[in-house]
Amino acid sequence: MKLGAENRTETIIAAVLGIIALLMVLRGFVFSPSSKPTPAPARAAAPAAAPAGNRGKATPVLTQSLDPRLRLDLLNSSEQVKYVGKGRNIFRAEAEPVKIEQPKVSPFRQKNAEPVVNTPPPPPPIPLKYFGLASRPGEPTRIFLSEGDSVFVAKEGEIVDRRYKIVHVTPNQVEVEDMLYNNRQSIPLSQG
Fold first, then answer.
1. How confident is the model at residue 27 (pLDDT cuts 50, 70, 90)?
2. In this structure, is residue 180 part of a structural domain?
């Protein structure tokens, strides 16, 4: 068996790459630099929050150092900072009541004009179409309803499309209740 005799250049390249990989592994494990901890460079701390009266004055940038002594001057300067909020109590779960301003009455409004009453919009019509029923002796009557491409088969008391309850079935119409809007509608037998 001849190993690599067919393509000598590929064998040489593979051997060189293997030697380079071995040297990289040895360099990482054996010839690693000493494991002395190096001190982290001092970074600039975020500037202290300026009091509301000192906006526009520059605040000194505090630097971190390895000095273990307590700096009372820095503590005193941070004690002088006062929080000035927007008046919202962060410890209450409910929001403050919103004050609604009353609209001013126009001097041009007629004295005997009736005020406008806002009534809620009527519930949307039920989109189901009734197109037939099937009844067998000894079984409850089943009806066929459609909405777009969907076809539903149900009997009295069942809920269709997780929203519509079948209340009453007759050969010519079906009474359906919309459970979301709590309204009833009779759907006649559709021809065609």
1. confident
2. yes
| Cα gap 105→113, rounded to integer Å | 12
Q: What's the whole-model pTM score?
A: 0.40
Q: Has residue 15 been placed in a domain? A: no
Structural domains of the chain, count: 1
Beta bridge partners of 155: none
Range of the domain at 133: 129-188
- Mean pLDDT on 123-138: 90
**47: number of CA atoms within 13 Å, CB side?**
9
Residues linked to residue 165 through DSSP beta bridges, in sequence order: 159, 177
Buried b (16+ CB within 10 A) or exposed e, 38-75: eeeeeeeeeeeeeeeeeeeeeeeeeeeeeeeeeeeeee
In a domain, 72, yes or no: no
